[in-house]
C-alpha cells in the first residue's frame, strides 16, 4: 500500500506529466538502450523511431499518476499491455531496469523541479505498479503454457504455404515443427514472430493478427509488405517475410495473445469494418461467425483503394454466399459500383445509414481495424450515428493511441 503522502505527491505531478510526458519517455528509452542494448532484442525499433512507443508509454505513466489512488481502474489497460509483454517475453527481471531509467529520465527532463521527495515517491509508486503488471503477466504466461497445445517462450513453426494475395499482401500458413497440437485462440488475437534478418544486429518482433478461424491445425498470418529503408523502419520484418522466407523455412512464434476479441456470448448483430490489411482480425472473426453463429446477423464492410489491393476477397465472398446471415460489402476509392464494389469513395455515416437498418445501428456491436486515420474516421462516423461507446471495439496495429 502506498502512503497518503506518496499518493499526494504523485498526483501533484499529473500536470507536469501532461506537459513533459513524451519528452520524459523519449529520454527514458534513449538512456535505457544506451546502458542495456540487449533490450533492443525485445522492443520494436520502428515504434521507437516513429515515436509511437514513447507517446504510448507517456499516456500510461500519465494515467498511472492520475489514478494512483485507484489503480484497479487501470486493470483493462494493464491487461492489454500485459498481452503484448507476454507475447514479447518481457519478464519480471526487466521491471527494475525500466524503473531505474524512468526515474533517471524524470530527473533529467524536469531538472531541479524533480525534487528528491518526488523521485522517492515515484520510485515507491513504480514498485507498486510494476508488481501489478508482473502478477497479471504471470497468470498470462501460465495460461499460455499450460493450455492444450500451449508452450512457453518461442516455438519453431514451418511455413507450409506462402500465398500472394495482392501485390503487397501475402499469407503464410504455419505448422509447428514438432507436429504437435497448437494453442487455441480467440478470433481477433495475434501471434508474435521473431526474426533476425541478415545483417541485423538484433532480433525483431512483430505482432500479426491470425486471419483464420480457430480450430485448424495451423495458423495463418496475412502480412502487408511495408516500405523498406531508413525512412520506413516498420518494413524490416514484413520485407524479410516477403523476400527471404519461403515454404519449408522456420519462424519462431510465441503463443496467441491479445484482448481485441470477438464476443461470442452475445446474440445481437455484428458489424465488422476494416481498411486495407486491417482485414486480418476481421476475416478471422467472420469465419467464426459464419461457422459457429448461424443465427447472428453479420455485416462485413471492407475498404480498399481498388479491387487489386483487396486481399482475401474471394474467401470473404464465399463465406457471404454460403451463409445467409452474412452480408459482405466493399468500398473502393477507385471502383465501379455494381461491377467492382458496393460503394465508391470513403465510408461515411450517410452511406452506412443506407446499408444498416435502424435496429442494427441501435443494437449491433461494431468492430473495426485499419490505418489510424481510417479508424479515426470510422470512430467519428459511428459516434455521429449514435453508436454507444460500449458497442465500439477497435485495435491499433502497434502501441495504443487515441481516436479523439
UniProtKB/TrEMBL annotation:
Its EC number is 1.14.12.17. The record marks 29 as: Involved in heme-bound ligand stabilization and O-O bond activation. SUPFAM superfamilies: Ferredoxin reductase-like, C-terminal NADP-linked domain, Globin-like, Riboflavin synthase domain-like. The active site is at residues 95, 137. Residues 152-263 form the FAD-binding FR-type domain. GO terms for molecular function: nitric oxide dioxygenase NAD(P)H activity. The record marks 84, 395 as: Influences the redox potential of the prosthetic heme and FAD groups. It catalyses: 2 nitric oxide + NADH + 2 O2 = 2 nitrate + NAD(+) + H(+); 2 nitric oxide + NADPH + 2 O2 = 2 nitrate + NADP(+) + H(+). Residues 1-138 form the Globin domain. NADP(+) binds at residues 276-281. Keywords: Detoxification, FAD, Flavoprotein, Heme, Iron, Metal-binding, NAD, NADP, Oxidoreductase, Oxygen transport, Transport. Residues 149-404 are annotated as: Reductase. It comes from the Bacteria. Heme b binds at residue 85. FAD binds at residues 190, 396-399. Its cofactor is heme b; FAD. InterPro entries: Cbr1-like_FAD-bd_dom, FAD-bd_FR_type, FNR_nucleotide-bd, Globin, Globin-like_sf, Globin/Proto, Hmp, OxRdtase_FAD/NAD-bd. Binds 1 heme b (iron(II)-protoporphyrin IX) group per subunit. Binds 1 FAD per subunit. In the C-terminal section; belongs to the flavoprotein pyridine nucleotide cytochrome reductase family. Belongs to the globin family. Two-domain flavohemoproteins subfamily. Consists of two distinct domains; an N-terminal heme-containing oxygen-binding domain and a C-terminal reductase domain with binding sites for FAD and NAD(P)H. Is involved in NO detoxification in an aerobic process, termed nitric oxide dioxygenase (NOD) reaction that utilizes O(2) and NAD(P)H to convert NO to nitrate, which protects the bacterium from various noxious nitrogen compounds. Therefore, plays a central role in the inducible response to nitrosative stress. NCBIfam families: PRK13289.1. This is Flavohemoprotein. It comes from Paenibacillus arenosi.
Amino acid at each position: 500500500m502506498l502512503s497518503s503522502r506518496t499518493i499526494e505527491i504523485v498526483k501533484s505531478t499529473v500536470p507536469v506529466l501532461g506537459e513533459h510526458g513524451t519528452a520524459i519517455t523519449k529520454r527514458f528509452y534513449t538512456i535505457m538502450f544506451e546502458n542495456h542494448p540487449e533490450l533492443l532484442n525485445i522492443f520494436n525499433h520502428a515504434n521507437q523511431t516513429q515515436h509511437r512507443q514513447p507517446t504510448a508509454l507517456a499516456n500510461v505513466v500519465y494515467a498511472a499518476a492520475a489514478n494512483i489512488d485507484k489503480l484497479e481502474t487501470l486493470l483493462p489497460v494493464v491487461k492489454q499491455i500485459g498481452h503484448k509483454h507476454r507475447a514479447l517475453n518481457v519478464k519480471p527481471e526487466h521491471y527494475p531496469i525500466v524503473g531505474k531509467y524512468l526515474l533517471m529520465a524524470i530527473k533529467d527532463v524536469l531538472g531541479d523541479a524533480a525534487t528528491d521527495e518526488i523521485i522517492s515517491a515515484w520510485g515507491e509508486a513504480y514498485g507498486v505498479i510494476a508488481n501489478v503488471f508482473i502478477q497479471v503477466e504471470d497468470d498470462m504466461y501460465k495460461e499460455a503454457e499450460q493450455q492444450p497445445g500451449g508452450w512457453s517462450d518461442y516455438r519453431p513453426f514451418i511455413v507450409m504455404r506462402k500465398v500472394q494475395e495482392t501485390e503487397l499482401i501475402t499469407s503464410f500458413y504455419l505448422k509447428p515443427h514438432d507436429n504437435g497440437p497448437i494453442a487455441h485462440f480467440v478470433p481477433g488475437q495475434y501471434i508474435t514472430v521473431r526474426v533476425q534478418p541478415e545483417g541485423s544486429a538484433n532480433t525483431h518482433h512483430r505482432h500479426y493478427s491470425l486471419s483464420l478461424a480457430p480450430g485448424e491445425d495451423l495458423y495463418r498470418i496475412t502480412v502487408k509488405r511495408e516500405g523498406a529503408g531508413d525512412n520506413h523502419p516498420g518494413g524490416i520484418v514484413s520485407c524479410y517475410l516477403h523476400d527471404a522466407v519461403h515454404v519449408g523455412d522456420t519462424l519462431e512464434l510465441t503463443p496467441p495473445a491479445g484482448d481485441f476479441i470477438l464476443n461470442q456470448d452475445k446474440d445481437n448483430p455484428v458489424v465488422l469494418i476494416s481498411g486495407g490489411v486491417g482485414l486480418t482480425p476481421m476475416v478471422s472473426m467472420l469465419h467464426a461467425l459464419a461457422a459457429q453463429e448461424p443465427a447472428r446477423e453479420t455485416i462485413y464492410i471492407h475498404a480498399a483503394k481498388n479491387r487489386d489491393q483487396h486481399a482475401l476477397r474471394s474467401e470473404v465472398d464465399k463465406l457471404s454466399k454460403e451463409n445467409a446471415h452474412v452480408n459482405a460489402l466493399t468500398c473502393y476509392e477507385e471502383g465501379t459500383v455494381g461491377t467492382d464494389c458496393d460503394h465508391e469513395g470513403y465510408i461515411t455515416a450517410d452511406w452506412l445509414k443506407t446499408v444498416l437498418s435502424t435496429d442494427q445501428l441501435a443494437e449491433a456491436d461494431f468492430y473495426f481495424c485499419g490505418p489510424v486515420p481510417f479508424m479515426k474516421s470510422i470512430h467519428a462516423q459511428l459516434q455521429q450515428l449514435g453508436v454507444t461507446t460500449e458497442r465500439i471495439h477497435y485495435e491499433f496495429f502497434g502501441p495504443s493511441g487515441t481516436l479523439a
